Amino acid sequence: MILGLGSDVIEIPRIAKACQRYGDGFLARVLSPSEAEFASLLHETRRFEFVAGRFAAKEAMAKASGVGLARLGMTSVELKTTEQGLVVHFMNADHVLTRQGLIWHVSISHSTEMAFAVAVVEQL
């Protein structure tokens, strides 16, 4: 049963400005440690797309869950790209969204100017 659906779109230049202005401090508020490490390896343009995509995905998850962004905690959620797609990992086993039986589906897409994400949460 689907419990929630959320989406978000963000302008990549807006994220680029935040990255340039606040540097690693901004990344530390938006990305998990391993996401930040991966982002640091990317060329600047691709880094901004990556950060914007993760930001949009986590915002979409907050909307789908109904808990809000503050309670979701951007750095407590890690999105890993695998051959099977995007995998959601909660860094804290006590996280509000780690209830058993919840399955997350998250998709991210980019254009040159925008990043878009959609999140669906379902319960088995």
Give, in order, the helices and strands: EHHHHHEEEE
CATH architecture: Alpha-Beta Complex
User: Could you name the CATH homologous superfamily?
Assistant: 4'-phosphopantetheinyl transferase domain
> Which term fits the overall shape?
globular
Helix percentage: 40-55%
Uncertain segments are none
CATH topology type:
Ribosomal Protein L22, Chain A
Q: What strand order characterises the main sheet? A: 1-5-4
Total E-strand runs: 5
The Rg value, from CA coordinates, equals 14 Å
Largest sheet: 3 strands, antiparallel
Structural category is alpha+beta
Give the rounded overall mean pLDDT: 89
- State which percent range the strand residues make up: 25-35%
CATH class call = Alpha Beta
Count of the domains: 1
The number of distinct helices, counting runs of at least 4 residues, comes to 5
Distance between the termini: 6 Å
Structural notes for this entry:
It catalyses: apo-[ACP] + CoA = holo-[ACP] + adenosine 3',5'-bisphosphate + H(+). One of its GO terms (cellular component) is cytoplasm. Keywords: Cytoplasm, Fatty acid biosynthesis, Fatty acid metabolism, Lipid biosynthesis, Lipid metabolism, Magnesium, Metal-binding, Transferase. It comes from Alicyclobacillus mengziensis. InterPro entries: 4-PPantetheinyl_Trfase_dom, 4-PPantetheinyl_Trfase_dom_sf, ACPS, Ppantetheine-prot_Trfase_dom. The protein has a single domain, classed as Ribosomal Protein L22, Chain A (Alpha-Beta Complex), CATH 3.90.470.20. It has helices at residues 12-22, 24-30, 33-40, 44-65, 69-72; strands at 2-11, 77-82, 85-90, 102-110, 114-123. Helix 1 packs across helix 2. It is globular, with a radius of gyration of 14 Å. It has a 3-stranded antiparallel beta sheet with strand order 1-5-4. The protein has a two-stranded antiparallel sheet with strand order 2-3. It contains 5 helices and 5 strands. The mean pLDDT is 89. The protein is an alpha+beta fold and 124 residues long.
